[in-house]
Amino acid sequence: MTYTAAQIAEKLAGEVIGESSTPLTGLAAADVAGAGDLTFADQPAYLASANAGAAAAILVAGNPGPSSKVLIRVANVRIAVARLLPLFHPADPVVAGIHETATVATTAQVDPTASIGPGCVIGDGVTVGPRSVLMGGNHLGTGCRVGQDVCLHPNVVLYARTQVGHRVTIHAGTVIGSDGYGYVFDEGRHRKVLQVGNVILHDDVEIGANAAIDRGALGSTIIGQGTKIDNLVHIAHNVVLGRHCLIMGQVGFAGSTQLGDYCVIASQSGIAGHLKLGRQVTVGAKSGVMRDVPDQGTVLGIPAAPDKQAKRQWIAVQQLPETTRRLRELEKQVAELTARLG
Asked: Could you tell me which residues come within 8 angstroms of residue 16 by beta carbon, excluding any fewer than 6 positions away?
């Protein structure tokens, strides 16, 4: 698909500086952009590289100064790129229908505009909404509800009674609604506590590959609207995540913890159970959160502490070798002085 610079600017509420009829056929980084491509420079320092490349036009913000290329000035370059990528790389068209190798229970309701791929199993009482896509090898247990425009990549599994909202994307190998990890010690052995709740995914959630979200023990594990979860994340039973949270790769949540809206949990962090993290909380990478965190709090480290406190501790640890050396020198001087006075 080809667009003019003027058409691109109109879609972005931007401004063309240069020839507005310049044709644009793709979007690429400056170092690989070819003739006809649109590239971007989200920082002034990158503009020189973009000017030196073969791209026909550059997305910029602010006042970039003179350029040998056509410029499209926008309010925010990164947001503009995110909005343009689907334009130049549209999703594959959905072919409605049920593949001949899929198994669909007679009590299931699959919208005629949905696409059910090869090897899918759809259980009793399942509903699949308009334009939703099950790519293949998906298993939907009894009573699952899948909204409209949902995409389940290959081998995603939804256990019984899972509820999926609209425009949800779940990537390959992820399991939603698996057993929560619940046991009690009884008569010398670990007796399983049945997990009879479910998982609720609200609208516009995206979940990466090979994640696991356990169903609630009695109630629901809930993922709030617009929350984005990276690969290899584990969310235990009865966890509640707020709206528009960002959960990075390899994060683990223990059971019954609650997060407010707009939280950011960085990679490889662990969150203990039964905690409350407030709205707009940030947890730094590889942190171990053991206590509640108030609204807009930022914590780091193991155990996690407020960011300023944690940084002071890290600086103090870095200074320990020199501090130890000076202490030994002082001890030596004290010992020598004591010997002379004695």
From this structure: 5, 6, 9, 70, 71, 72, 73
Give yes or no: 171 in active site: no
Q: Which of the following is catalytic: 139, 153, 166, 237? A: 237
CA angle, 96 as apex, 131 and 107 as ends, to 5°?
80
List pLDDT tens digits, range 13-51: 999 999 999 999 999 999 999 999 999 998 877 888 899
> Looking at the chain, how many residues does it have?
342
Q: What is the pLDDT of residues 50-63, one digit of tens each?
A: 999 999 999 999 88
Omega before residue 66 within 30° of 0, cis: no
Amino acid at 61: A
> What 3 state SS string does 174-239 have?
CEEEECCCCEEEECCEEEECCCCCEEEECCCCEECCCCEEECCCCCEEEECCCCEECCCCEECCCC
**217, 237 Cβ separation under 8 angstroms:** yes
